[in-house]
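Record 1 of the preview.
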Amino acid sequence: MKNKYIYTLVIFFFISTFSNNAISKDKKTYEYLDLFGQIFDRVRSSYVDDVTDEELIEKAIDGMLTGLDPHSGYMNEKVWKEMQMDTQGKFGGLGIEITMEEGFVKVISPIEDSPAFKLGILAGDFITKINDTLVFGLTLSEAVDLMRGEKGSAIKITISRKNMEPFELEIVRDVIKVQSVKYEIFENIGYLRITSFSEQTESGIKKSVKKIKDILENKEMGYILDIRNNPGGLLSQAVAVSDIFLEQGEIVSTRGRTNIDMKRYRAKKGDLIDGKPLIVIINAGSASASEIVAGALQDHKRAVIIGTKSFGKGSVQTIIPFKKSNNKMAGIRLTTARYYTPSGKSIQGKGIDPDINIEQGVFEADDYNTYSESDLIGSLENENNITLEDSDNEDTIKKERIKNDYQLSRAIDLIKAMSIFKE
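->
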């Protein structure tokens, strides 16, 4: 009876302590919310310009999220609509994937064939000024809003680049239609380029591999997967693309705040390229979903990774929708997990180290963007109408491309060496 009495007292003590802690915590939270209310009222009544309540609240929400990390943020109605178009592979703007670093906008990667790409904006560039507005002090959302605009309208941005004086560029905005996957053939080697991970990426890779196999009659020596300057995109597509080249095993795991939030993604049987040699090219502009693919193929020893260290974005953002009182949609982008390669490595802030380090050639700056979709074998417009003259011209373009793109040239050599070794 005495033991039962002590047991009851212990339970009461823990419940009491827990309740007191919870009440204390709630009290502190309400104090801060009261402080927020006071500041909100003061700003609304004393700020130099009229600001709507909606504006103030949205900025407060965005500040709360962007203060956590550079990839979380608030999406108002306009940004929400644009985000929907982004994942479908079509959106408006300059064509750059960006983040905030040290108060300035940093370019993760220019999107291939976009206005920014054609003008030579590079991964690692900092945007310090947008038209006449200094970027320092702006949130990422505010900077994005300044850069968005109508198709055909011009914008001036000031670029700060390592070892160079800051310079100004005028860019004409356009609707960016991303062709997620492009393919080409170099000397019986299939070349696959992924520019972003959108809803069409998996199907694009499968179609491209089929076309390469048909053209080469299944006699291809191997494949090159080029994910340089690929800023990432949908996690599901990164998993699907990795699965295309793997027979089994874990592709990636994501780990959130608790063990319940942990997810593992595994490959299904079936290597679409039948175990043939595979080279993956990465660089500092390869981020997020690109790093998932490179990490999975590297850990499983399925591909040789060449190039330079990748960007190092190892966090997962969840898009959470909210319906506003006017029935229109808004949402938040919230970092909910980190992802880990099959060997258990987190690349957050570290990046993927290539198996063979090969420094950048002129790929990013000049030569690559002189080639368009029409230059590729099998482009839809010319697939059935290639003349001898066209073919000769394509051969010349390819030779120039290989000569000027050092990383691609080394990838081709490696495929040849692996093919000879295998034989």
